[in-house]
Amino acid sequence: MANPVSAVLSKLKIDAYIIALFGMVVLASFLPVRGQAAEVTGWVVKIAIALLFFLHGAKLSREAVIAGVTHWRLHLTILAFTFVLFPILGLLISKVGVLTPTMAAGMVFLACLPSTVQSSIAFTSIGRGNVAAAVCAASASNLFGIFLTPVLVGLLMNAHGDVGGWDSIKSIIVQLLVPFVAGQLARPLVGKWIEKHKTLVGRVDRGSILLVVYSAFSAAVVEGLWRKVSPLELVVLLLVCGVLLTLVMLATMWGARLLGFSKADEVAIVFCGSKKSLATGVPMAGILFPGATAGVLVLPLMIFHQIQLMACSVLAQRYAARPADDEA
């Protein structure tokens, strides 16, 4: 006899993974990790991310990696969406007047940030996109963001401060490039095993995203997320973030098609070009702005981060369900 809950979800076409994502938000709201437990969770997330990159490195052929590195049109397209279109839209939204001045400034700061790393690659993988290009594009976005984000923030918000430095570069190298290269080197030993266990990579992809959602939202709740904004302001902020994400996702999707990219490249462009990094944004805010101001300015980023994970999970499933011959 079929499970009645599964039958209902099947009829409603609700992905159980979407429910799991919402469950992480609810769990973090009521039972956020604090203190030493938060530190342990942070290390677990880092390990999951490293494992994710190792598996991607071991799964991809050398030819695919070389093609991803040399795909300069795709990388320039993603960087243009991340550091040109996003800041323009963020600045325009801040001038509309529907947000408080602080929230409007937070939207501009959000728009100047680089793309995410782990979730961009994970969603690209789930959506059967160009994972090699996504790895390179996400890395490039974060490396360039170390220098471009402070400049953009300074130009658009008149903020000052030194952001990034060797610690940021080292973090990207350690968490992304080293495991990926290690996977490539280990491919002759583990490549065939991974090909036989493709579901393992998918589980690590999804599991890492669930951990990131829970960890990030826990940090927001511990910092007093629900005390810093009224319900009405939260609703307006949710709507504005949703509008911004929708505009950028449509622009990346149709832009990729107009520029003649393949479907696999389109998936990478959409997921790398429409997302903003919470992991990079929060430390940058702490350096660029005073403590009290930084805590409020990152609220739009925290909201946008959750919305983008939910929306991208749905879109990744739609991309994954496309016919095998729909690649051109």
Automatic annotation (TrEMBL):
The keyword Transmembrane helix applies. Keywords: Membrane, Transmembrane, Transmembrane helix. One of its GO terms (cellular component) is plasma membrane. It holds the Pfam family SBF_like. The chain crosses the membrane at residues 12-31, 43-60, 72-93, 129-156, 168-186, 232-256, 277-303. InterPro entries: Na+/solute_symporter_sf, Put_Na-Bile_cotransptr. The keyword Transmembrane applies. This is Bile acid:sodium symporter. It comes from Caulobacter flavus.
